[in-house]
Amino acid sequence: MRLIFAGLELEVQAESSRSVGSGYVLHGGTVQLTQPEAPARFFRHGWQSWSLASWLELDKPPVPIQPPERRPQADDPVYALSPRHGGSALGAVECPDGKVLLLGALAPGGRVEAHGRALRGFYESGAGDWFVAHGEEAAVFAHYAEMLAERLGRRGQSPAPKVWCSWYSFYTGISEPVIHQVLEGLQGLPFEVFQLDDGWQQDMGDWEANEKFPSGMQALARRIRAMGYIPGLWMAPFIVRPSSRLYRERPDWLLKDAQGEPVPAGINWGGFYYALDTTHPQVRAWLRGVIQRAVAWGYTYLKLDFLYAAALPGVRQQNIPREQAYREAMRLVREAAGEETYILACGAPVLPSLGLVDGLRIGPDVAPLWRNEDREDYLHDLTGPGGLNALRTSLHRLWLRRLVQTDPDVAYFRTRYNLLSPPQRQALQDLAKVAGFLATSDPPQWLESDERQALERWLSEEVAVSQRGRYRFLLGEREVDFGEWLGGRDA
């Protein structure tokens, strides 16, 4: 069959097609669009929050991330060694007429790859619907987002809360005295959420307060709320470390490979960590209890991290597609947390999270430095912490704003313990305004008076944002061209 757009005629392989608005919906387990000329650039959409999303040159083959043990926490390990450029759920190419051709899955479990003149999409399991559109980039991605909203739902359409997060200042070095000191210093700054990050728990899998929080998590939530903030808490409910009590006592709860060995989810905290099988009935009951307990303590803002672990390949108790397993786990989390609890998903597969979470991290972690040259240049890993990595992928995920609140991670105002230059700090501050999610980790005690004033202005000022090009925006009357950071100005 053929699809005809203004200025473009495509050869199509699919089970069926129907027009919808300015695009088409195809159906099939595998579909293919072939255009008259081979494109030069491909839009790669990474699997989860940290995975690279960017326009890439097709004449340069993909290079695997090194070392192999880090691949599960960087991108979809199933396709880590693929010789073709591909993306999770969607892909797009630039056409000779200057417009964009997009092919996107309308259900979890899809992948799109570039094959010469063709875009080929396939579902890992069964058949499903696909959306095809050709036109101006912003319009094509907006139409795709609306199609996803119809199929998967949307949340987080009100303004995102303004968040102070402990991670990028203290990392795991938080304690009751540290938190109390920060709370006192934040008075007068218009934050809405005060979020504790990694460092409060006994271990990954043992989600109870450690010895640094002797008063317990409920007492701390009450203190945070008494100071005028919504209490927020970080957890990684789908992973477990070998040092945890849960790992020792319930090895049968782990996701296993075909040989019956636990599936590594990545390497961090000095060693490997592993995925839980979220289809196991006892794991599901435990997950529900973990989330309900955190909310009962008083934490109605949950930052849930390393979520991709529930969608890793493996042998599950329930034989269902892996992204369906993830989505069902997130549906359970949403039910346990309740509709009023804000869920920020981090390290999360993008499409299967839609409709279930309020906020979604759309790029890698930032850091008080712009680039990690060793990791990026020698290990070919653009998913690690750093300002440029966060900026690059977050810019290419802004089309998701119609579906979920988009979190590009924190901005910096401090100069203390910070290697970012003033223009680099400004770029991250502007990115947050464009994405509509304002957060920082700067302790007030680390800020000079002018830095605190700048932070307060940034949190308080309402700035109209309009997009003028792929990377070019107006913030109020000030033009910002993020293309300057990505190797060239936006056209």
Automatic annotation (TrEMBL):
What InterPro entries does the record tag this protein with? Aldolase_TIM, Alpha-glycosidase_related, GH, Glyco_hydro_36
Q: What class of enzyme is it?
A: hydrolase
The biological process GO terms on file are: carbohydrate catabolic process
Per UniProt, the keywords (alphabetical) are:
Glycosidase, Hydrolase
Output the Gene Ontology terms for molecular function. Answer: alpha-galactosidase activity
Q: What is its EC number?
A: 3.2.1.22
Give the domain of life.
Bacteria
| Name under which the protein is recorded | Alpha-galactosidase
Question: Per the UniProt entry, what species is this protein from, by scientific name?
Answer: Calidithermus roseus
